[in-house]
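Marked as duplicate of an earlier ticket. Keeping the data here for the record.
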Amino acid sequence: MSTGTPTVTPAAVEVHGVHKWYGALRVLDGVDLTVRPGEVTVILGPSGSGKSTLLRVINHLEKPEIGYVSVNGELIGVRRQGERLKELSERAILTQRSRIGFVFQNFNLFPHLTVLDNVAAAPVATGRLAKPEALALARELLDRVGLADRTGAYPRQLSGGQQQRVAIARALALRPGVILFDEPTSALDPELVGEVLAVIKDLATSGTTLVIVTHEVGFAREVADRVVFIDGGRIVEQGPPSEVLDRPRHERTRDFLSKVL
Protein backbone atom coordinates (compact mmCIF):
# COMPACT_ATOMS: atom_id res chain seq x y z
CA MET A 1 0.00 0.00 0.00
CA SER A 2 1.34 3.45 -0.88
CA THR A 3 2.30 5.68 1.99
CA GLY A 4 1.60 8.79 -0.06
CA THR A 5 3.90 11.76 -0.24
CA PRO A 6 5.03 12.60 3.31
CA THR A 7 3.00 15.39 4.85
CA VAL A 8 5.14 17.74 6.87
CA THR A 9 4.26 20.64 9.13
CA PRO A 10 7.08 23.15 8.66
CA ALA A 11 8.84 24.15 11.85
CA ALA A 12 10.00 27.47 13.25
CA VAL A 13 13.59 27.66 14.51
CA GLU A 14 14.81 30.12 17.16
CA VAL A 15 18.47 30.56 18.12
CA HIS A 16 18.84 32.66 21.28
CA GLY A 17 22.13 34.26 22.32
CA VAL A 18 24.27 31.27 21.40
CA HIS A 19 27.97 31.23 22.27
CA LYS A 20 30.25 28.32 21.47
CA TRP A 21 33.98 28.01 21.96
CA TYR A 22 36.71 25.40 21.75
CA GLY A 23 39.35 26.26 24.32
CA ALA A 24 40.34 29.85 23.60
CA LEU A 25 38.71 29.83 20.14
CA ARG A 26 35.31 31.50 20.15
CA VAL A 27 33.39 29.94 17.24
CA LEU A 28 29.94 31.47 17.86
CA ASP A 29 29.71 34.83 19.58
CA GLY A 30 26.17 35.70 20.62
CA VAL A 31 24.14 34.44 17.65
CA ASP A 32 20.42 35.24 17.47
CA LEU A 33 18.49 33.86 14.51
CA THR A 34 14.82 33.32 13.74
CA VAL A 35 13.69 31.07 10.90
CA ARG A 36 9.97 31.21 10.18
CA PRO A 37 7.95 28.10 9.27
CA GLY A 38 8.39 27.23 5.60
CA GLU A 39 11.21 29.72 5.13
CA VAL A 40 14.39 28.94 3.18
CA THR A 41 17.35 30.50 4.97
CA VAL A 42 20.79 30.37 3.37
CA ILE A 43 23.85 31.00 5.54
CA LEU A 44 26.94 32.36 3.81
CA GLY A 45 30.36 33.21 5.16
CA PRO A 46 34.07 32.48 4.84
CA SER A 47 35.63 29.20 6.00
CA GLY A 48 35.91 29.11 9.78
CA SER A 49 33.19 31.70 10.30
CA GLY A 50 30.99 29.38 12.40
CA LYS A 51 28.41 28.41 9.78
CA SER A 52 28.62 24.64 10.21
CA THR A 53 28.92 24.91 13.99
CA LEU A 54 25.69 26.91 14.05
CA LEU A 55 23.87 24.13 12.18
CA ARG A 56 25.26 21.53 14.56
CA VAL A 57 24.12 23.58 17.54
CA ILE A 58 20.58 23.73 16.13
CA ASN A 59 20.18 19.95 16.41
CA HIS A 60 22.46 19.68 19.46
CA LEU A 61 25.29 17.82 17.77
CA GLU A 62 27.26 20.62 19.42
CA LYS A 63 26.27 21.93 22.84
CA PRO A 64 26.40 25.73 23.24
CA GLU A 65 28.25 27.14 26.24
CA ILE A 66 25.67 29.93 26.52
CA GLY A 67 22.24 30.31 24.94
CA TYR A 68 19.73 27.83 23.59
CA VAL A 69 17.80 26.71 20.52
CA SER A 70 14.11 25.96 20.16
CA VAL A 71 12.16 24.32 17.34
CA ASN A 72 8.44 25.06 17.33
CA GLY A 73 8.85 26.37 20.85
CA GLU A 74 10.46 23.17 22.18
CA LEU A 75 13.93 23.57 23.68
CA ILE A 76 16.47 21.36 21.89
CA GLY A 77 18.83 19.26 23.98
CA VAL A 78 17.90 20.87 27.29
CA ARG A 79 14.98 21.53 29.63
CA ARG A 80 14.36 24.34 32.08
CA GLN A 81 15.01 23.60 35.73
CA GLY A 82 14.23 26.80 37.60
CA GLU A 83 16.53 29.44 36.16
CA ARG A 84 18.94 26.89 34.70
CA LEU A 85 19.00 24.73 31.57
CA LYS A 86 19.60 21.03 32.22
CA GLU A 87 20.87 18.61 29.57
CA LEU A 88 18.34 16.04 28.38
CA SER A 89 19.10 12.33 28.29
CA GLU A 90 20.76 11.02 25.13
CA ARG A 91 17.58 9.12 24.26
CA ALA A 92 15.48 12.29 24.52
CA ILE A 93 17.98 14.20 22.38
CA LEU A 94 17.93 11.47 19.73
CA THR A 95 14.12 11.66 19.66
CA GLN A 96 14.32 15.42 19.07
CA ARG A 97 16.94 14.97 16.34
CA SER A 98 14.61 12.59 14.50
CA ARG A 99 12.38 15.63 13.88
CA ILE A 100 15.27 17.72 12.50
CA GLY A 101 16.68 16.47 9.21
CA PHE A 102 20.43 16.89 8.67
CA VAL A 103 22.25 16.47 5.36
CA PHE A 104 26.02 16.27 5.84
CA GLN A 105 28.84 17.31 3.52
CA ASN A 106 30.10 13.75 3.17
CA PHE A 107 26.77 11.90 2.87
CA ASN A 108 27.23 9.61 5.96
CA LEU A 109 25.42 6.70 4.30
CA PHE A 110 25.68 3.18 5.70
CA PRO A 111 28.11 1.44 3.32
CA HIS A 112 26.75 -2.06 4.06
CA LEU A 113 23.14 -1.17 3.22
CA THR A 114 21.53 -0.73 -0.17
CA VAL A 115 20.21 2.66 -1.21
CA LEU A 116 16.67 1.51 -0.39
CA ASP A 117 17.61 0.25 3.07
CA ASN A 118 19.61 3.41 3.84
CA VAL A 119 16.45 5.47 3.34
CA ALA A 120 14.13 3.02 5.11
CA ALA A 121 16.37 2.45 8.14
CA ALA A 122 15.46 5.45 10.28
CA PRO A 123 11.64 5.15 10.15
CA VAL A 124 11.99 1.51 11.21
CA ALA A 125 14.60 2.16 13.91
CA THR A 126 12.50 4.91 15.48
CA GLY A 127 9.31 2.84 15.37
CA ARG A 128 7.60 5.31 13.05
CA LEU A 129 6.84 2.71 10.37
CA ALA A 130 6.85 -1.05 9.97
CA LYS A 131 9.40 -2.37 7.49
CA PRO A 132 7.01 -2.80 4.52
CA GLU A 133 5.65 0.75 4.90
CA ALA A 134 9.16 2.16 5.34
CA LEU A 135 10.33 0.46 2.15
CA ALA A 136 7.34 1.80 0.24
CA LEU A 137 8.08 5.32 1.50
CA ALA A 138 11.77 4.91 0.63
CA ARG A 139 10.86 3.99 -2.95
CA GLU A 140 8.65 7.07 -3.26
CA LEU A 141 11.37 9.34 -1.90
CA LEU A 142 14.06 7.85 -4.12
CA ASP A 143 11.79 8.42 -7.09
CA ARG A 144 11.38 12.03 -5.95
CA VAL A 145 15.16 12.57 -5.99
CA GLY A 146 15.55 10.81 -9.35
CA LEU A 147 17.00 7.50 -8.13
CA ALA A 148 14.12 5.06 -8.59
CA ASP A 149 16.40 2.88 -10.71
CA ARG A 150 19.20 2.59 -8.10
CA THR A 151 17.31 1.17 -5.13
CA GLY A 152 19.41 -2.03 -5.05
CA ALA A 153 22.77 -0.29 -5.39
CA TYR A 154 25.26 0.22 -2.58
CA PRO A 155 26.74 3.65 -1.79
CA ARG A 156 30.14 2.71 -3.25
CA GLN A 157 28.44 2.09 -6.60
CA LEU A 158 27.05 5.63 -6.79
CA SER A 159 28.56 8.96 -7.79
CA GLY A 160 28.94 11.61 -5.12
CA GLY A 161 25.91 13.46 -6.46
CA GLN A 162 23.81 10.32 -6.30
CA GLN A 163 24.97 9.59 -2.75
CA GLN A 164 23.99 13.09 -1.66
CA ARG A 165 20.55 12.67 -3.23
CA VAL A 166 20.15 9.44 -1.25
CA ALA A 167 21.14 11.37 1.88
CA ILE A 168 18.42 13.94 1.14
CA ALA A 169 15.82 11.18 0.66
CA ARG A 170 16.95 9.67 3.97
CA ALA A 171 16.49 13.01 5.73
CA LEU A 172 12.98 13.29 4.29
CA ALA A 173 12.00 9.80 5.45
CA LEU A 174 11.35 10.95 9.03
CA ARG A 175 9.11 13.80 7.85
CA PRO A 176 11.17 16.46 9.68
CA GLY A 177 9.76 19.91 10.33
CA VAL A 178 13.09 21.44 9.32
CA ILE A 179 16.04 20.18 7.27
CA LEU A 180 19.59 21.46 7.84
CA PHE A 181 22.07 21.25 4.95
CA ASP A 182 25.76 21.55 5.79
CA GLU A 183 27.51 22.54 2.54
CA PRO A 184 25.75 19.74 0.64
CA THR A 185 27.76 20.26 -2.57
CA SER A 186 31.25 20.94 -1.16
CA ALA A 187 32.42 17.31 -1.50
CA LEU A 188 31.17 16.98 -5.08
CA ASP A 189 32.93 17.29 -8.40
CA PRO A 190 31.74 20.50 -10.12
CA GLU A 191 29.75 18.65 -12.78
CA LEU A 192 27.69 16.88 -10.09
CA VAL A 193 26.68 19.99 -8.14
CA GLY A 194 23.69 20.83 -10.33
CA GLU A 195 21.84 17.56 -9.75
CA VAL A 196 21.93 18.04 -5.97
CA LEU A 197 20.97 21.71 -6.12
CA ALA A 198 18.00 20.78 -8.33
CA VAL A 199 16.67 18.44 -5.62
CA ILE A 200 17.10 21.10 -2.92
CA LYS A 201 15.42 23.65 -5.19
CA ASP A 202 12.42 21.32 -5.47
CA LEU A 203 12.28 21.06 -1.69
CA ALA A 204 12.48 24.85 -1.42
CA THR A 205 9.21 25.16 -3.34
CA SER A 206 7.44 22.52 -1.21
CA GLY A 207 7.03 24.58 1.95
CA THR A 208 9.58 22.69 4.05
CA THR A 209 11.67 24.83 6.42
CA LEU A 210 15.25 24.70 5.13
CA VAL A 211 18.47 26.09 6.62
CA ILE A 212 21.30 25.75 4.12
CA VAL A 213 25.00 26.46 4.61
CA THR A 214 26.58 26.82 1.17
CA HIS A 215 29.17 28.64 -0.91
CA GLU A 216 26.82 28.63 -3.92
CA VAL A 217 25.89 32.31 -4.03
CA GLY A 218 23.93 32.02 -7.26
CA PHE A 219 21.86 29.23 -5.74
CA ALA A 220 21.24 31.36 -2.65
CA ARG A 221 19.97 34.17 -4.85
CA GLU A 222 17.58 31.78 -6.58
CA VAL A 223 16.04 29.86 -3.67
CA ALA A 224 16.52 31.81 -0.44
CA ASP A 225 13.82 33.78 1.29
CA ARG A 226 16.55 35.16 3.52
CA VAL A 227 20.33 35.24 3.34
CA VAL A 228 22.40 35.38 6.53
CA PHE A 229 26.05 36.43 6.32
CA ILE A 230 28.15 35.25 9.25
CA ASP A 231 31.76 36.11 10.01
CA GLY A 232 33.86 35.59 13.12
CA GLY A 233 31.01 33.75 14.81
CA ARG A 234 28.63 36.69 14.48
CA ILE A 235 25.78 37.49 12.12
CA VAL A 236 27.01 40.51 10.21
CA GLU A 237 23.82 41.11 8.26
CA GLN A 238 20.74 39.33 7.02
CA GLY A 239 17.80 40.02 4.75
CA PRO A 240 16.31 39.11 1.36
CA PRO A 241 18.81 38.08 -1.33
CA SER A 242 18.06 41.27 -3.24
CA GLU A 243 19.43 43.25 -0.30
CA VAL A 244 22.27 41.16 1.13
CA LEU A 245 23.66 39.97 -2.20
CA ASP A 246 22.93 42.98 -4.40
CA ARG A 247 23.07 45.89 -1.95
CA PRO A 248 24.99 44.72 1.13
CA ARG A 249 25.19 47.31 3.88
CA HIS A 250 28.30 46.03 5.64
CA GLU A 251 31.81 46.38 4.24
CA ARG A 252 32.74 42.86 5.36
CA THR A 253 29.84 41.42 3.35
CA ARG A 254 30.83 43.43 0.28
CA ASP A 255 34.41 42.21 0.59
CA PHE A 256 33.33 38.56 0.87
CA LEU A 257 30.98 38.77 -2.11
CA SER A 258 33.60 40.46 -4.26
CA LYS A 259 35.78 37.37 -3.84
CA VAL A 260 33.14 34.71 -4.53
CA LEU A 261 30.98 36.26 -7.23
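See parent ticket for discussion. The longest helix spans residues 131-144.
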